[in-house]
Design brief:
six-stranded mixed sheet; Rossmann fold; 2 domains; binds adenosine-5'-diphosphate; alpha/beta; Alpha-Beta Plaits; four-stranded antiparallel sheet
């Protein structure tokens, strides 16, 4: 595998606290790669080590085929978790400034800034100062500033947070377009759905440790089967079945009917679930298998107690 990044045994300690413990993964060139986990899992710390902002307490990183250096970092675009840099610059100025810092000649940098703003429907804010823009708008500008020097490897820390659903979709399209142009994209998120839609491979971290590394389909295969059920009227299916050990949650309500989702785990298959529904006198109007989500795979892998696992080694 030709890797844009190889990280081996990464550890980061802040005093007595270990934020990242023995994390290894590798990012294939040209792929879209997701670093996932709940808040505080160690995602930002991992990304900061990759881009040389933080020095690992232990472990090894190979970035674009070599050690982290000024030269390799020029070929990398990084959106940090902290936003709101260069607040008094114009949108155009900030994009061009970051491109120039990474070695792009001034004329090219301004031309690219104009082109990127136009391509993303942002011409009207071209000359507006960053501090006058809405949070979401400023974030879009910062995303463009991170890619204006046309890096081979793009690293975005929580790029979707702070964006509304329309702009989240637009950012997904930007990420896909970058990968289609042959670039490698790595992003972190605590929202599994973005990774599920975009990524080939993912790294799941929980409490600083690797819980899973592999393809999205490998992760989904580790999730329990799922069933979707509908009941008429006010019947409380979770109230009836959770005490019997079934993992049933309410998904939504429509026209007085309730929609439920059940995880089929611990040897309780769809036959046992159906039987329990009948015994409870549930007024079922729908019972069908469903595709598990990446979130459900994550819960299955990590659960309540955080257990780093060695699956998909
Ligand atoms: P994530 O990006 O997944 O939300 P972080 O990498 O930001 O997680 O943080 C991982 C853990 O390290 C958290 O418990 C956080 O409180 C801690 N942490 C992060 N930065 C520092 C720091 N500079 N000093 C001390 N602890 C830190």
């Amino acid at each position: 595998m030709d890797a844009a990044l190889e990280a081996e045994g990464l550890v980061k300690r802040y005093g007595a606290r270990t934020a990242v413990r023995d994390v290894s993964f590798s990012v294939p060139k040209g792929s879209i790669y997701g670093v996932l986990g709940p808040n505080g899992a160690g995602k930002s710390t991992t990304l900061r080590m990759i881009v040389g902002v933080l020095k690992p307490s232990a472990g090894r990183i190979s970035l674009l085929g070599g050690p982290i250096s000024r030269e390799t970092l020029r070929r990398v675009g990084y959106l940090p978790e902290e936003r709101g840099l260069y607040r008094s610059m114009s949108a155009r100025g900030a994009i061009a400034y970051l491109a120039r810092l990474k070695g792009t000649p001034a004329r090219t940098a301004f031309r690219r800034a104009d082109q990127l703003l136009a391509d993303h429907g942002l011409e009207k804010i071209r000359n507006k100062r960053i501090k006058t823009l809405s949070k979401g708008m400023a974030q879009k500008v910062q995303v463009l500033a991170a890619i204006a020097h046309e890096p081979e490897f793009i690293i975005f820390d929580e790029p979707f947070s702070g964006l509304d659903p329309v702009n989240q979709r637009a950012l997904e399209a930007t990420i896909r377009a970058q990968a289609q142009a042959g670039r490698t994209v790595l992003f972190s998120t605590h929202v599994m759905e973005h990774a599920e839609r975009l990524c080939e491979r993912i790294l799941l971290i929980a409490q600083g440790a690797r819980a899973f590394e592999g393809t999205v389909s490998e992760a989904l295969a580790l999730a329990p089967s799922v069933a979707v059920l509908e009941t008429d009227g006010a019947f409380d299916l979770a109230g009836a079945l959770v005490p019997k050990g079934f993992a049933v949650t309410l998904e939504g309500e429509e026209h007085g009917n309730k929609r439920w989702r059940a995880r089929l785990e611990n040897g309780r298959g769809s036959r046992q679930l159906l039987q329990a529904c009948v015994e409870a006198g549930a007024p079922l109007s729908l019972f069908e298998p469903a595709r598990a989500s990446l979130h459900e795979a994550f819960v299955a892998l990590v659960g309540d107690k955080i257990k780093p696992s060695t699956v998909a080694e």
